[in-house]
Design a protein that fits this description.
By secondary structure, the chain is mostly helical. The protein has one domain. It is 80% helix and 0% strand. The relative contact order is 0.08. The model has no long low-confidence stretch (mean pLDDT 90).
Length: 83
């Protein structure tokens, strides 16, 4: 994070994009750490949400397929009875 930040932060005495990583860490270390934690938390949360959605989709597909199979079974049994 600090290395990426060196490209965008502005610090008096340094040209844009030329601030040493050590200076960036010293001046913005807490903010960089907080940002990194926030991004990680967001990533983990999204991964968990995706997993839950996928589980629900699989369950719904399974229930849907079972329903279709039941309908087909009823149709076939009715055809057999009336033909």
């Amino acid at each position: 994070m600090a290395k990426e930040a060196t490209k965008t932060v502005k610090v008096d005495g340094f040209r844009a994009g030329k601030v040493p990583v050590a200076i960036v860490k010293k001046l913005f270390g807490d903010k960089l750490k907080s940002d990194a934690e926030g991004k990680l938390l967001e990533k983990l949360l999204m991964r968990g949400i995706r997993r839950q959605i996928l589980k629900r989709v699989i369950l719904l597909e399974s229930l849907f397929l079972r329903s279709i199979i039941r309908v087909i079974a009823v149709i076939l049994s009715l055809r057999f009875l009336y033909h």
